[in-house]
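S1.2 Input.
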Amino acid sequence: MEAEADRACHELLLRLAGRLPDDLLWRLRDWLSVEGRSAVGATLPRALLRNRIGLTADERDLLVQAVGGWGAPRRLLDAVLPVHAPEARSAGFRAGAVVPDVAALCVLAVVRGETGVRELRQSLRIGPRGEQRVVLVLGADRPWVLTGTLQRLLRAHGDRTPGVEVLPTGFEPAPYHQAAMTGSTLLWSATGGEHATAAPVGALTSA
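S1.3 Output.
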């Protein structure tokens, strides 16, 4: 079923956060969200080979389940490097401002209307090119579709390589996501409502 392949591909792309370059990762997720499966199948195995990114046995199974039926040549899938554990790449995170900006409020407006979402967090990843916003969403019925929606929203607000991590129920967060959640601000939860929704700096308010 296409839905199972989409789900497997989304999980693999989650596991590749912090391992694949941001400009490639967001594009693959965007294609997946709009059923661009042939583009993902043609690009993902080559990207893994080009960037010398190895996959664990579980990740390789996800790769085959996802893109094996989307036109990816078997010889490319077999050529992906095997590893016992994902390469550990250090990434520092810190909590963003308590008062969210307009982009974060727009993300919140979308997330609150999504079935299955339990929590929304925001973090800032610290890297050599400066700070990168990372949005963390816990739960969603079709996380790959929500990922694409939120990415396009953030790009409309000026984020060239949006970092959106929608973690489905039952997904065990990778060290990248664990670090991002530890250094994050809680913006909203399904049980506790809004946590940081004051008007952002420069927003219009009624008298």
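S1.4 Remarks. Residues 92-194 form a domain with the GMP Synthetase; Chain A, domain 3 fold (CATH 3.30.300).
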